[in-house]
Write a structure and sequence with these properties.
With about 600 residues, this protein is an alpha+beta fold. Among the domains are: about 270 residues, no CATH class; about 140 residues, Immunoglobulin-like. About 55% of the residues lie in helices and about 10% in strands. A nine-stranded antiparallel β-sheet has the order 8-1-2-5-4-3-6-7-9. It is globular. The termini are far apart. This is Transmembrane protein. Keywords: Membrane, Transmembrane, Transmembrane helix.
Length: about 600
């Protein structure tokens, strides 16, 4: 066997310093996007139910279990997410950890499938492969999609679909190489997982069949996959509970559908260009233009793959499959959301649809990079690397801004948990809308309280009166800020919102519990730690200790001194105390906060 080292050295010597610098910059950008996205989930991933998930949990307690697991939820059939949610309730006290971790694993797995495929593309130079890796990471982990990424329940809707479609695309490519119907069957089974993950999941079959068509898989090998598709559709629309809800959501309006598809495909541009502050009509027009360009690019890519005699590479097949998933999903959105898009056309740019259009942009980019195949030439990666780095730079602003948005939503989610624990109906943070009506929200909270799940896992101090004992004072630079007073319509009492922050040198236990007591040691409220929503600092490379806090004082008394006790929940002992006084005129202001000795 010949020694490969001389060839490696020759390639290394032939790479110019500029090419080496470009390679380093591309790899660094890939790392930065992936790392900051994962850290954003670690810092701001939602730890408690949020929005429509209160309604979903309420349905688990009001419907037969079979309906809750396999039934329709907002015109979708999210069986995979329901099964995971059920397991989390059964074994993890509904603490959101299983959903959040699996969501991150599935999203990261999608990116890893693309990255590994790029690394194995031998016809590309290292620079082109690095560019493809950066595109893969941005396609999945760009924080424009943070709404789906940092919410475990939402992540389990969409990322089983993206991963299944990517695997199905590779399975179709393998079916061509190995002339085996077994690979098409495996791809169809992956698509079945996608189908029962979300309403758009059946679009994964578009990825499987588009790749099979372009790589010329023999028609006989299609038959098992087509049979599986037919069975899935029958199950989804006819045999499983709630099938009337599926059929009733579909409407056919070619003009509305076409406009919706184009706008959905153009939504990454609109979302990334939010700082341009496009007006309603300008945004709609810009979205149509961007979507038309993407749609034309997709058609051109498919025609190139079908007409070109040279077979597609694995990376090219994956790119077309991923793009086909997004295009088919946009078509399903246009088919099932006719009335909504007629009333509010800008809904096509909603972040809940952005995952699918991002797949189209990323998939087409991977397909384009796969065409730069001149083995042994370092030049075939320069244009892809420059293009990928340019896209990374343009998306970096929205990547940062969406980390700030995630920080703010995380804080709201934390506050909602305190309101639920204290049986306070705070209309700012507990849902009472189409996502979850008040009756559903309260029913879910009461069911959680009975079972000591989620926000009720931690127990309050067993002997609150003992908390009047001397407690080390919080550092003087810590502060308390008073919010608004409002009437709680749940507990029929007056409540005041409080927030603030601990100083950097304040000790924070691993399991903190924040209790508000008066001078006699009687409990008058609670608070919770969270990262304050400083948008400029939300995009981070580390996971700092949360030092901001938000909570409530129940039945506040003017000119009364209170103490916010930071308690180690494991030891049930106070760690530090922060004193504050409610002034005669209560409102948004800094309370009198001082050390307690």
């Amino acid at each position: 066997m010949s020694n490969p080292l001389p060839a490696v050295k020759s390639v290394a010597k032939s790479r110019s310093p500029a090419s080496t610098l470009l390679l380093a910059a591309t790899l660094l950008a890939t790392y930065a996007y992936a790392h900051t996205a994962l850290v954003a989930v670690a810092n701001f991933g939602l730890r408690f139910p949020y929005s429509d998930h209160y309604r979903i949990y309420a349905n688990f307690f009001s419907r037969p279990l079979v309906d809750a697991l396999f039934g329709i939820e907002n015109a979708h059939r999210p069986v995979v997410a329901a099964l995971v949610r059920f397991a989390e309730m059964r074994w993890f006290a509904a603490d959101q950890s299983l959903q959040l971790v699996l969501g991150v694993v599935l999203a990261s797995g999608t990116a890893m499938v693309m990255m590994v495929t790029a690394l194995r593309e031998r016809g590309l130079s290292p620079l082109a492969r690095a560019a493809a890796m950066l595109v893969a990471v941005m396609t999945v982990l760009w924080l424009g999609n943070v709404r789906m990424f940092f919410h475990g329940g939402e992540a389990l809707h969409v990322y089983p679909v993206t991963l299944s479609a990517a695997l199905a695309s590779l399975a179709a490519f393998a079916a061509r190489e190995r002339r085996s119907a077994a690979w098409m069957t495996a791809g169809a089974l992956a698509c079945t997982v996608a189908t029962f993950s979300f309403g758009s999941g059946v679009a994964a079959f578009a990825a499987l069949f588009a790749v099979a068509l372009c790589v010329r898989v023999p028609w006989k090998a299609w038959l098992p996959a087509l049979a599986i598709l037919v069975m899935d559709v029958i199950l989804y629309t006819t045999l499983l509970p709630g099938n009337d809800g599926v059929k009733g959501s579909l409407q056919f309006s070619p003009a509305v559908m076409a406009m919706t598809v184009l706008r959905v495909l153009g939504s990454p541009f609109i979302n990334a260009a939010q700082r341009l502050e496009l007006s309603g009509s300008s945004a709609l027009s810009a979205g149509l233009l961007a979507g038309s360009f993407v749609a034309a690019s997709y058609v051109a890519a498919m025609l190139h793959a079908l007409r070109h005699r040279k077979p597609l590479s694995r990376l090219g097949a994956l790119g077309l499959g991923v793009a086909s998933l997004g295009v088919a999903s946009a078509g399903l959105i246009g088919l099932s959301r006719v009335e909504l898009m007629l009333t509010v056309p800008a809904e096509a740019f909603a972040d809940r649809y952005l995952v699918w259009s991002t797949q189209v942009w990323g998939g087409l980019a991977l397909f384009g990079i796969s065409l730069a195949r001149r083995s042994g030439s370092a030049r075939n990666g320069v244009a892809p690397a420059i293009g990928a780095l340019t896209a990374a730079a343009l998306l970096s602003v929205s990547h940062r801004d969406n980390a700030g948005w995630a920080s703010a939503v995380h804080r709201n989610n934390q506050i909602s948990a305190v309101a639920a624990r204290l049986q306070i109906w705070d209309p700012l943070y507990l849902p009472d809308d189409d996502a979850s009506r008040r009756a559903h929200t309260m029913a879910a909270i009461e069911a959680f309280r009975e079972r000591r799940w989620s926000m009720f896992i931690q127990s309050p101090p067993s002997n609150p009166l003992a908390l009047v004992e001397p407690v080390p004072a919080a550092p003087a630079t810590s502060l308390v800020v008073l919010g608004d007073v409002f009437d709680d319509t749940w507990g029929q009492r007056q409540v005041i919102r409080v927030s603030g922050r601990y100083a950097k040198d304040a000790p924070i236990p691993d399991k903190p519990l924040l209790i508000i007591v008066d001078e006699s040691g009687h409990v008058h409220g609670e608070a919770i730690l969270s990262h304050l929503p400083y948008a400029q600092r939300a995009l981070r490379f580390n996971t700092p200790v949360a030092r901001g806090f938000d909570g409530y004082v129940i039945a506040p008394k003017k000119d009364t001194k209170y103490r916010l006790l930071l308690i180690d929940a494991d030891q049930q002992l106070p760690v530090t105390a922060l004193a504050f006084t409610l002034p005669s005129q209560v409102g948004p202001q800094v309370a009198e906060s001082h050390a307690v000795h």
